[in-house]
Amino acid sequence: AIYAFFAGLATVAVGFRIINLKMTKEPLISGIGFILTGLSGMLALLYLRLWRNKTIRFIAAVIIISAAIIWLRTGCMAYWAHLSGLSQWKPLIMR
């Protein structure tokens, strides 16, 4: 959980920077995905210490499920775009 805190802190910083620099096709969605993923790591120790508290479990679930939905959408769209872009590609010997 201590490692997750620092990894999460870096991930939150990356999320804000992606939004700030508009680095992807959808920087706000990607940035929020990174921020939520980082928050789940930063709060891991709290989740582990207070796991019997229903409110804490609910907050953890909302953060983690929200991040998972964002990454599912982002991943599906990336596969779709990459496959579309590669559909016309041929190996050098077949050109």
Structure commentary:
- Helix content is 79%, strand content 0%.
- The chain has four helices and no strands.
- The protein is elongated, with a radius of gyration of 18 Å.
- The mean pLDDT is 92.
Please give a handful of descriptors for the protein shown:
4 helices; 79% helix; 95 residues; mainly alpha
Give a short overview.
The protein has helices at 2-21, 27-42, 44-49, 54-86.
Order of helices and strands: HHHH
Query: What do the pLDDT scores average to?
Result: 92
Largest sheet: number of strands, sense, barrel closure: none
- Count of helical segments? 4
Q: Could you estimate the helical fraction of the residues in percent?
A: over 70%
| Fraction in beta strands | under 5%
Oligomer: single chain
Shape: elongated
Q: Between the first and last Cα atoms, what is the distance in angstroms?
A: 52 Å
Find the count of extended strands (DSSP E, 2+ residues). Answer: 0
Radius of gyration: 18 Å
SS content category: mainly alpha
